Amino acid sequence: MITLDLTGKRALVCGSTQGIGRAIAQKFAEAGASVILAARNEAALQKTAQELSHVGNAQHTSICADFGRFEDVEKALASFLAQEPNTTIHILVNNTGGPSPGRIAEATSEQFAATFSQHILVSQMLVQRLLSGMKQAQYGRVINIISTSVKQPIPNLGVSNTIRGAMASWAKTLSMEVATDGITVNNILPGFIKTGRLDSLTTTTAKNQGKSAEEVATSMLQTIPAGRFGEPEELGNLATFLASPLAAYITGTSIAVDGGRTSAL
Asked: pLDDT tens digit string along 39-74?
């Protein structure tokens, strides 16, 4: 039996009070990691921290920051690291909400700039802050939650498709630079997963097409060979494997978790 063991590892999980981020944080905690939750809602952070599993000596903490504001995240992380200067964060999960649905031809430059900052610039800053500790430990895992749009653009997600592709290129480049330091960089590409993001996409699409949300959901399901929407925990399982020592030789990859929906190789 394969055991995913993250005992002694500390993980920073962004967007971890709901959906995919919360599921990953819980799976990490179950595997023995000490989890640092990061999100913008302090009450939700405290609640989530209390509900995480505790294995061995693992201790869970949190960082409150709005990932839509670069300076806010930078300041919050700097404050956290200053309080625990000798702490090494071995695992970083870059996960933040996507922009509103919409056609790319109608997107504004402000939407592109804000999304670029929220995804690329924040992720770059986080890596630069944590990289030295990972190198010293000769163990690091950077896991990015992106989208299957990296392989196949999704209709009505113009800005998201663009920035997600940039994120994948950033990750691939980083993976080649840090591999010799025992650090891996991989992307998880969620398909249609049961989260608030899926509800938002369903509602917006229904409004644009003059259909009911149920009709839109049925159409979505017809595109999934597995015949169902995914569960956040299923992404958490993959993230835990990629974060573990068992995945030391897997880097620079983009792995779809979509029930077979993506038709690209």
From this structure: 999 999 999 999 999 998 899 999 999 999 999 999
The DSSP result for 28-62, as a single string, is HHHTT-EEEEEES-HHHHHHHHHHS---TT---EE
Residues 63 and 164 in one domain: yes
Retrieve residue 163's tokens: 């920035």
**pLDDT tens track for 112-134:** 999 999 999 999 999 999 999 99
Secondary structure E strands in the chain:
10-14, 34-39, 61-64, 91-94, 140-145, 183-190, 254-257
Q: What's the domain range around 203?
A: 193-229
Do residues 132 and 218 both lie within one domain? no
Tell me the pTM.
0.96
CA distance 25 to 23: 5
Q: Which residues, 6+ apart, have CB-to-CB distance to 7 below 8 Å?
A: 31, 32, 33, 55, 56, 58
